[in-house]
Amino acid sequence: MPGIVIVGAQWGDEGKGKVTDLLAEPADLVIRFQGGNNAGHTIVREGVTWKFHLIPSGILHTDTLCAIGNGVVIDPKVLTDEIDGLRAAGIDLSNLRVSANAHLIMPYHLMLDHAGEARLGKLEIGTTRRGIGPAYEDKAARLGIRVQDLLDEKILKKKIIAAMAPKELALRPFAKSPDLDLRAMTEAYLTYGHRLEQYIADTSRLTWETLDSGGYVLFEGAQGTLLDIDHGTYPFVTSSNPVASAACTGTGAGPKDIDEIWGITKAYATRVGAGPFPTEIHDEFADRLREAGGEYGTTTGRPRRVGWIDLVALRYAARINTLTALCVTKLDVLTGLDRIKVCVGYRGAEEARFDEYPYHQTVLHQVTGIYEELPGWSEDLGECRSEEDLPQAARDYLAYISDFVNVPVTLLGVGPGREQVIWTQAGRQTAPAQRAAV
Ligand code: GDP
């Protein structure tokens, strides 16, 4: 023990990468539990920017095992490219483990993802078109191909044939693509298998063994709570469960193995792709916030939609995940504002007021935020390293958030650098901080 889960408390891109990196330092094992190469973490360390798509960012620590759990879907080309890139940068990968039960993204998944979004036209979900949704569909349809299948040519071929048969019609436009040729595909995936074999493992057992021997396991989530396929703004969601409970199904840990759940939120809000976003800002202030926060997708480069912090949604995320801690990132980005708005309720059709996150999608599409205005601050926060260094208005802003969602703020981000964080008094009493201090 302990097991600690990191989840996005908004729509993803909250800065989970940096928090994971910090919390991974004293960890014995970091394991990803859902999503695919649509996540992407950016970490700035000693002036070097690292971008991760599949491998947990903990790989930068020499003593930490890093695993890709069974709940993740893996594009083996992306994974082998990422391995090559890290190796070329001098990173040791002997600590990498890949679940034998994780599902694979196949060439036809990529094609179907493109075709599906194109067909939806204006109604497109805004997927990253990396084949992740179709791979999860095949998993549910029991037509998926798993990492372990890469090690057996006969099984691999049989499973590819079975998976492609019901897709014949949808794949017709791509019939001439060399990537769909059965022989070529089998060859290519066997080659990936050879390359990945040394990393393939029973990661569920590894997780259990680490916890059982008193180790510290960090469960690394991707995307965010409001993109969850069950609890998010369906259908404008991702195809997996980014909420904390998925840390169990996506790794093979039991619910009692989880001790702390850390939710990451920005000091404001962003969203990529389509779907409801009640606190969205559209005027030129939105451009200013987007520029100040560098709000462009890590994996896609797409500009993110920006808005004020939504405390109704954040309180919902605190409940769905049973958050024990809140990390507020990018506080520095709000410097220079006279007043800062916080959304404390929603206004719907016919002036209806909602204090809780509405369950009905139509309501959510119609609502706008009801705001409180709090005083801003003008000081640059980049050098602040303790709560006392922060201007009073920034401290009041954080206290307001924490009180509203009823979760203690443990860690603050005041710049992109690894050292640009503040551990709050509550944060210093938590397991990761105490482990780091040992
Ligand atoms: P993730 O998917 O949740 O890890 O988020 P991303 O990696 O896509 O986005 C986080 C971005 O914000 C990265 O470029 C980080 O370097 C940057 N970042 C993280 N924390 C802070 C912070 O406290 N302040 C500022 N200005 N940038 C931050």
Name its key features.
single chain; 438 residues; alpha/beta; Adenylosuccinate Synthetase, Chain A, domain 3; Adenylosuccinate Synthetase, subunit A, domain 2; 2 domains; ten-stranded mixed sheet; four-stranded mixed sheet; 15 helices; binds guanosine-5'-diphosphate
Biggest sheet: strands, sense, closure? Answer: 10 strands, mixed
CATH topology of the largest domain: Adenylosuccinate Synthetase, Chain A, domain 3
Ranges where pLDDT stays below 50 over 5 or more residues in a row are none
Strand order across the biggest sheet? 9-7-5-2-10-1-11-15-19-20
Shape: globular
Query: How many angstroms does the end-to-end distance come to?
Result: 15 Å
Secondary-structure content class: alpha/beta
Oligomer kind: single chain
Ions, cofactors and other ligands present here are: guanosine-5'-diphosphate
The number of helices is 15
The total of beta strands comes to: 20
Number of domains: 2
| Alpha-carbon Rg, integer | 22 Å
CATH class annotation of the largest domain: Alpha Beta
Question: What do these coordinates show?
Answer:
The protein is α/β, with parallel strands linked by helices and 438 residues long. It folds into 2 domains: 3-91 and 202-437, Adenylosuccinate Synthetase, subunit A, domain 3 (Adenylosuccinate Synthetase, Chain A, domain 3), CATH 3.90.170; 103-196, Orthogonal Bundle (Adenylosuccinate Synthetase, subunit A, domain 2). The chain is 32% helix and 19% strand. It is built from 15 helices and 20 strands. Strands 9-7-5-2-10-1-11-15-19-20 form a 10-stranded mixed β-sheet, sandwiched between helices. Strand 3 and strand 4 (48-52) form a beta hairpin. It is globular and about 65 Å long. The chain starts with a strand and ends with a helix. The mean pLDDT is 92. The structure holds guanosine-5'-diphosphate. Residues 8, 12-18, 39-42, 44, 294, 298, 329-330, 332-333, 413-416 line the site of guanosine-5'-diphosphate.
